[in-house]
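Hi support team,

I'm filing this because I wasn't sure whether my run with DI6 finished correctly. The job status page said complete, but I'd like someone to confirm that the output block is well-formed before I use it downstream. Pasting the exact inputs I used:
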Amino acid sequence: MGGANGKSGLRVWRNARLATMAEGAAGLGIVEKGAVAARDGLIVYAGAEADMPAAAGQGADIVDCEGRWITPGLIDCHTHLVYAGNRANEFEMRLAGATYEEVARAGGGIVSSVKSLRAASEDDLVAQTLPRLDALMAEGVTTVEVKSGYGLDLDNEKKSLRAARRLADERSVTVRTTCLAAHALPPEAQGDKEAFIDLVTGTILPAVAAEHLADAVDGFCEGIAFSPEQMARVFDKAKALGLPVKLHADQLSNLHGAALAAGYGALSADHLEYTDDAGAAAMAKAGTVASILPGAYYFIRETKKPPVDLFRRHGVKMAVATDSNPGTSPLTSLLLTMNMAATLFGMTVDECLAGVTREAARALGLLGQTGTLVSGKSADLAIWDIERPAELVYRMGFNPLHARIWRGQ
Ligand code: DI6
Ligand code: FE
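And here is everything the job wrote out:
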């Protein structure tokens, strides 16, 4: 499927079945005999092949999809992809009985990844991250969010975000970066969380914003991380700098992080295992997306499930993401993540597929640009060798991707 588009700059994928995921369409927005046309990287038509305006196909480079399915390119809206080394040793500790919190309190956990990241050069970080990005892309990912949060000082947070930005130079993929400086307390802070939040709000966030290194600001609101009051300080600063916010909320306990995030109009609140009715209601009112992260739930053997029924009842939109990180979710497969969301949390096939396309785009503030097969959006497509969309959720460890198109190529 390589090569340049036709002379007219137009390419048409025909003889396909579409899951457009369009807003307002029923279910997956299925079009049985469908076609997608793209010009200059943008979709100019997506719908029934029979209804495609002649102009949309004239002089086009035609690709016969032979009945394959086309979905929007997949979007992983929550990752900590940029890190150095790994934490397989902690995995072994936990297999021997230690909990995530015990590992963290014993000086392991996030802080051990901080040491590794600080020791790595920016080039090295990019090189270590690319295989993980390639694994995601091999399953049709066309947009990925990447957080910092293992630097925890000015230079290393900036290094992480620059490395994340560079991924987009190295690969055909859209990268959105998020500054997660308020992720954990670094050793040099010597237990002083307030002073570290001073550093985040007074130094790190302003510098990151000035250099346009981050598209959003995130934090970890938890007993082992930062309090709601401390997160509010971070969010106030982010708002003042014009950056949208999101939050690791209610993952290990209910500190009412979901409601806090919603109060700041957050793009998303993520994890949410312990979120209550008031939190879900606040998210619905604010239009804050619930990012469901089954990889971490599975990997740390959490037993409290995120309240997907509550989210449904309140009309909260649900995204599904890998949370790819070295400590709690060493996962680089969105297909497997969908299977986990369905099997562990009872999410439907339609919810899972929306969660890695339309709702993931919404969670990144990118719904105007990608996430559904709709005219005017980026021609980000995944073409699958499957008979029905449920196969994308049902299988474990099998990749039916036939082709991946990013911005029409
Ligand atoms: N919640 C998580 O699951 C990850 N970060 C966070 O805030 C864990 C990151 C790690 O353990 O390295
Ligand atoms: Fe995370």
